[in-house]
Specification:
This protein has 4 helices and 6 strands. It has 114 residues and is α+β, with helices and mostly antiparallel strands. It has one domain: Aspartate Aminotransferase, domain 1. A 6-stranded antiparallel beta sheet has the order 1-2-3-4-6-5. Strand 2 and strand 3 form a beta hairpin. It is globular and about 40 Å long.
């Protein structure tokens, strides 16, 4: 997926918001919490513990710079070569969105219509 395609997908997720920060990265949030970071280096997203352990050694994927170094389970898809297929990448970004949404307070989720 191109950067524009990733941004369009993130924008399609309900109640997502976008800011540009951290040196020109497209930062996608839900309820004020980050679920994806799109930069010239690739796209970073939150991963489940299992996905983090399995995928971090796959070609085109690595622990997300800065975020993973802080102990967070975030991956960066920087391929090709390697990396996730477009459908897989969409699934992982959506899973990141779902994990962040689930971590919001009940009140915040209600405000967002979830």
């Amino acid at each position: 997926m191109t950067r524009d395609e990733i941004n369009a997908f993130c924008q399609s997720l309900r109640a997502s918001t976008h800011v540009v920060q951290w040196g020109g990265s497209d930062v996608w949030k839900v309820g004020g919490k980050v679920f994806a970071v799109v930069s010239d280096s690739g796209v970073s997203f939150k991963a489940s513990e299992i996905a983090f352990e399995v995928l971090q050694t796959q070609d085109g994927l690595r622990p997300a710079p800065y975020l993973a170094s802080r102990g967070l389970k975030w991956l960066q898809n920087y391929g090709p070569p390697g990396g996730l297929s477009d459908p897989e990448l969409r699934r992982h970004i959506e899973a990141s969105y779902d994990m962040i949404l689930a971590g919001l307070t009940k009140k915040k989720r209600a405000e967002l219509g979830s």
